[in-house]
Specification:
The chain is an alpha/beta fold and 184 residues long. The protein has seven helices and nine strands. 34% of the residues lie in helices and 25% in strands.
Length: 184
């Protein structure tokens, strides 16, 4: 029987937790499909490894080349500055494509594990309707487990999940820098 796992919260490591379970599944010869909402970077480890872990590991990205937020602003994290752009209609179109793709994957491939990376944030920002996400979850094959990630998960997703983990950052060094192979 499959379960729904939710990794949310403002701390780092939500996607990393999902990837750990994905790696375990692939290690046991199970089919894993990762769908990344709002993400586009091809230099991240989980994307770079795809050919080496195929055919049991697939990853798809549905995001434009931009950091997306609830307002236009400049943010600083780990000593780097990021230009954040407001949600645009193209973000909603890409998220809808990703959700439709997830529905098709569930029907046609019936993976052991489906990771819906950042779908919780997409639902929170109303890029996707939470009702549409719940409808998709209600139609899962019994053998498929799903991992939902993203900060600010709507209460409806928390209620629907079988396991809820809130990732909270307690501390971080002031001189912290993003590390290839760890944070991406």
């Amino acid at each position: 029987m499959g379960y729904i796992y939710l990794y949310t919260g403002t701390g780092g490591g939500k996607t990393a937790n999902a990837l750990g379970l994905a790696l375990r599944s692939v290690g046991h010869g199970k089919k894993v499909i990762i769908i990344q909402f709002l993400k586009w970077r091809k230099d991240i480890g989980e994307y770079l490894i795809k050919n080496r872990l195929a055919p049991n590991y697939e990853i798809y990205q549905f995001g434009r080349e931009a950091w997306i937020g609830d307002e236009n602003k400049t943010e600083e994290f780990a000593g780097e500055k990021f230009e954040v752009e407001c949600v645009k209609s193209v973000d909603k179109e890409l998220a809808k494509k990703a959700l439709d793709f997830a529905r098709r994957i569930i029907r046609e491939k019936k993976p052991h594990l489906l990771v819906l990376d950042e779908i919780a944030l997409a639902a929170y920002w109303r890029i996707l309707r939470v009702e549409d996400v719940l409808e998709m979850l209600d139609n899962l094959p019994t053998e498929t487990s799903v991992i939902i990630t993203g900060r600010l998960a709507p209460k409806e997703l928390e209620d629907r999940a079988d396991f809820v983990n809130v990732i909270q950052q307690i501390k971080m060094p002031k001189d912290f820098k993003l590390t290839e192979g760890i944070q991406y």
